[in-house]
Structures are given as structure tokens and as C-alpha cells.
């Protein structure tokens, strides 16, 4: 619908209806120092001039030749098929279905996405997606308290710090108590009021956790407590044991790595799966497959939505009433394009290239690899001069690794390095050259 600005007559009529004399009176609660009298906007431009202006502005963007930054958002290869499918008008312009049965094509696509995710994770059921990984984890935490009727959750060290903040925000409104623990003191933290233990593997620091050991610890000491696992890069499922094979109750992940570009940090895709017995407590929506009442023709329906806030607000188990339809379609297309062996190849290259960079970095004076466990994609390295390393990376047109003091002030001079299949041999050599330039010997010699 076109935007039609209100003329003076229309404004006056609306003010009369609500019983105020002027716009100033209408906005009287807004502090005067926040009110802008007039926007300093330039005059209108012709279309060619506007395009030239936008192109000029776009040149301010820094385009790096390769990236060593991960921390929850990753550069992975995206087959051309993904953009081709998601750019089709019947998908690209469609919103998540509300008049569901009229959207048979999209319902089938989401149904196939659910099936694909369920098979990949070996979990019993997957929903039609959440906003992103962080909100999926927060919803899982709340879901655990509804199932167990307990009021506390435990977060194991290693969960993405931004995910932790989202969990705290969600749980604050639900009066859910949040406890923090590590593997060493987890047993002591478990008690009768704990609804779930949440952990990330591979974790924020790249460590592949001993999932079986964590689960055994929880089951032995708190048998009625749920176990929730999260991943920020599920491409590792190409080689790692799926969560359904480890007795995880709820598994969530950020699906951005499945065919979705990092863009400017979004959008993401919240993958949400659970055991069959928790099906009716899951947030969001599920797509089902059915038949005609008086026939054999199959169709797809939006099912199990009665718990959503737009249906039964006062009894809703979650406030989400949508899904990331286009992003889930991208993930489905990505996984189909890679096939059975493709995701395994992606995961193998991630592991091999990361191990190579770790090994070569450890041979440079002043660098120390801090991970004690096997890693996937990412690892911690203590640097002789992290600021100089970041500057050298930028000079090589490399997006530098994450400086961890952004999240953990005590972790000085420590970088979180990410390597994926998109890092070529040349880009890796350039990164190692940047590291040598910032090595202890070179820095001391300057």
C-alpha cells in the first residue's frame, strides 16, 4: 500500500476525535530536548543520481578477501542453487503462512525442512524454526521449566555469551533462576529444583565437549532434569555424533551456516528439536501431513498451534507465533544440494584446516594454543600482541579473529580464531604471515 501523508484537515479531524487540540499536546509526554523541529534532509534526487549516491556510500564498506572471524556467525560455501530457489517470487515474497492451507507449496517446503532436520539430528521431532539460535535456546530453557514444573536452570561454561544474555532476558520475565557451572562443579550444583542443564558443544571456545560424560553426570545425580544442547555451527554434524544418539532431551542450533550469508549479522535460523514425548510442549509451530476426510488426496496443514499466543494468549507456552520460513527454505536447499557426503566433506575440511592453522601458529614464537580438548572450526590462542595481529590481518585484507576481551575482560591477549572450508591455502598463508609479523621476536625487535 502506498504511503499517503496526512494533510492538515485529516490531522485536525483525528485530533478532534481523541480530544486534543494540537500535535504538541498529543506528544507532551516526550521531553522537549528529544523533539526534532526539522529534519536536515537534502532535496530529492532523480533515479540516476540516487543510484550514484548509493554506490558512493557503498564504497565505505570494507570487503575482506577472507575471514578468520566466527563466534556464532560463519562464512561457509553456499551452492548457487540456494539463491536460485529462495529468490523465486512464490517463496521470496511469501510470509510465514497464517491462512495456512492456502499455502500448500510453502507448507510442503517447511514440512521437508522439519524432516531433514529431524534426520540430521536424529531427534524425534523438529519444529518449523525459531528466530535464531539464541532465542531457540531461551525458549528451550522455558520449555524445560514447563515440563518439569521446576524453577531453575543451569548454564554450563562455554555457552555463547550473547546467548546467555538472551536466556537471562527471557528467564527474568518468567522468574526462572539461572545458575552457572562448569564440568568440575556441576554435580554439586544439581538439585531438586533444577529443570534443565544447558550446554554448548562445540562450545564458544571451539571445544568439542564429552557429551556422553555430561549426560551421565546429570542422569546419575538429577534423573528428572532435562538436558539441552546448543550448537552455533551445526555443519559439525557431518562428522560428530548427532544429539539424538546421545540421549539429549532438547537440541537447538543456529542454522545460519546452512546456506544463509552472514550479511550484517542476520537474519539467523533457530533450529529446534526435541524428543517425541515433549512434542506438545514445544514452542512455535509444526507442519503436518494429512489426507482428505472423504478421499485419499494428501495435503499439508499448520498443526499444533493452539499453544501459540495468537491463538490462546492466556495459556500460551511461548510468545512466538511465526517462523523463519525463507531461512528454513535456504537451509533445506543447502542440505539437499550437499547430499549425504557433502556435509561430511564440509566438516572434514573445517577440522583439517583448523588443525593445520593451530599447528602452524604454535610453531611461531609467542603464540600458545589454549584448548585442551579437540576443537571444531574455532580455537583459542594467546598472542604476543593481539592489536598488532589484528592490524596486520586488516592490511592483508583478512577479517581478523575475535579479541575475547570484548566478552571476557580477563582474557587479555587471547584471540578466538575461526577457520572454515572457505579459507583457501593462500588466505591461510597470509594469516600465518600476519601472525609472524606480530610474533614475540618481531615485536621485541622493533
Order of helices and strands: HHHEHHHEHEHEHEHEEEEEHEEHEEEHH
Order of strands, main sheet, comes to 2-8-7-6-5-3-4
Q: Indicate the percent of residues in helices.
A: 25-40%
Number of alpha- plus pi-helical segments: 14
Q: What is the annotated CATH architecture of the largest domain? A: 3-Layer(aba) Sandwich
Class of secondary structure makeup: alpha/beta
Globally, the shape reads: globular
Write the CATH fold name of the largest domain: Aspartate Aminotransferase, domain 2
CATH class of the largest domain: Alpha Beta
The count of β-strands is 15
Low-confidence stretches: none
Q: What's the number of domains?
A: 2
Can you characterise this structure?
This protein has 446 residues and is of the alpha/beta class. It is built from 14 helices and 15 strands. The chain has two domains: 66-74 and 339-445, Aspartate Aminotransferase, domain 1, CATH 3.90.1150.10; 80-335, Aspartate Aminotransferase, domain 2 (3-Layer(aba) Sandwich). The chain is globular and about 75 Å long. The chain starts with 7 loop residues before the first helix and ends with a helix. The model has no long low-confidence stretch (mean pLDDT 92).
